[in-house]
């Protein structure tokens, strides 16, 4: 993902295109922004909607307008359009479609939901509200897991690749990205929300990876609920981007997040640690000796997690590495099982 696309999400997040476009329907709310008269070029539409978005305080106004215009024209990004098309007039239908989608952006609907899909490490994933939208930082989590697997060739199952558990699969971004890069791997993906389970399955089918992933409804907070995962243990890796926002920070999140994404996928409790500690508590039951847990967390969490692990020596888990994200914030943890 390009840097400016990463910065778009960094700004939208506050503390913390489908190729070929989508059918456009008539909306009665157009009166506030009536359809533009005449035929305009893509570059003219981008300039127009950038000004409208800026006036209304929409974050990353130009990037939002570029994504939408490109999407209607069948491209992933504006830069993917042939330059000769930048100044060609659009049809009335295309203008109307852009009008509809930009009107949704004015309502602070995330670009990912407007387009209906988003790229994650080169994979085109379907996006539907309220399933959590994968952030650019999470691409770095996947990169780290892939690096560690490459450096530890012994981390394999009998079938020749690691067996991976993802807790909280959402759209399936992490699981499917790992499957696409580790051809012999198998993934168990779990989530408590039916919408996330369904979306992960649909994305797996779109990418033809459904034969190597088990997608299971599962609530990590439910006592005893992990027992039905035991047939797949021991596992090589557990990976998760769990809910980690401090509860008192939820109200500070951008409107795009507060109004449209599932708060259950964001709110980690008083110190953002509720699901993190639950994963760590249960992980030793399913990990191999020297198996690893990779977590995306809030920058205040490395110290909190380290202290928590020291107070729970019976788990035989050690925080072995911390990695910073592209903004320099301590964002990722590698925890390793150190005993039977």
Characterization of the model:
- The protein has 340 residues and is α/β, with parallel strands linked by helices.
- The chain folds into two domains: 18-115, Helicase, Ruva Protein, domain 3 (Orthogonal Bundle); 122-337, Vaccinia Virus protein VP39 (Rossmann fold, 3-Layer(aba) Sandwich).
- The chain is 35% helix and 16% strand.
- It is built from eleven helices and nine strands.
- The strands form two sheets. Strands 5-4-3-6-7-9-8 form a seven-stranded mixed β-sheet, with helices on both faces. A two-stranded antiparallel sheet has the order 1-2.
- A hairpin with a 5-residue loop joins β8 (317-324) and β9.
- It is elongated and about 65 Å long.
- The chain starts with a helix and ends with a strand.
- Mean pLDDT is 88; it is low at 7-23 and 25-38.
- One of its GO terms (cellular component) is mitochondrion.
- GO terms for molecular function: nucleic acid binding; peptide chain release factor N(5)-glutamine methyltransferase activity.
- Residues 1-20 form the signal peptide.
- It is an enzyme of class 2 (transferase).
- One of its GO terms (biological process) is methylation.
